[in-house]
Amino acid sequence: MHKGSCLCGAVEYEIAGELGPIVACHCSRCRKASGSAFNAMSPVAAADFRIVKGQDCVRDYRNAAGVSRLFCGTCGSQLFGKRDSAPETIRVRIGSLDTPVSGKISAHVFVGSKAGWDEILDGMPQHQERP
Fold first, then answer.
1. What is the Cα–Cα distance from 128 to 27, expressed in whole angstroms?
2. Given this model, what pLDDT does residue 130 score?
3. What pTM, to 2 d.p., does this model score?
4. CB atoms within 10 A of CB 112
């Protein structure tokens, strides 16, 4: 069981299953949304994910391609994402987890558009786009 929350504590969630591989996305959208060099996320089964507190605080930014970023409407913390094309999967933002994570980043995606000031030095696979 994994648990997570936003910065202000208004939203809390649980994951009953395992985390998938942790991926660092370096696309310009993830950089804009996170305010950082990349967004670290892990896919989990939608059936294993549930919001246990603050559903009314969750806000959804959905783009024209059917990709949603869900975040706390009070503090702005990114919590998870989902795609219309893969409703069975939730992409949890690893930084919002409160429980320890034993895994490490397994790959970097969209490095073709990564920030020029960022260096990737961990030796993990790098993909110009999504593999």
1. 10
2. 80
3. 0.88
4. 11
Q: Which amino acid is at 92?
A: V
Q: Name which CATH class applies to 2-113.
A: mainly beta
Contact 16, 48 (CB under 8 A): yes
Closest CA to 93 of 32, 24, 28, 46: 24
Query: By the 8 A CB rule, do 126 and 120 touch?
Result: yes
pLDDT, mean of residues 14-42: 92
Exposed, middle or buried by CB within 10 Å (0-12, 13-18, 19+), for 102?
A: exposed
Encode pLDDT of 63-85 as tens digits: 888 889 999 999 999 999 999 99
Strands annotated E in 1-131: 2-5, 12-15, 22-25, 39-45, 49-53, 58-62, 67-72, 78-83, 89-93, 105-109
DSSP 68-98: EEEEETTT--EEEEEETT-TTEEEEEGGGB-
- The Cα–Cα gap between 104 and 107 comes to 9
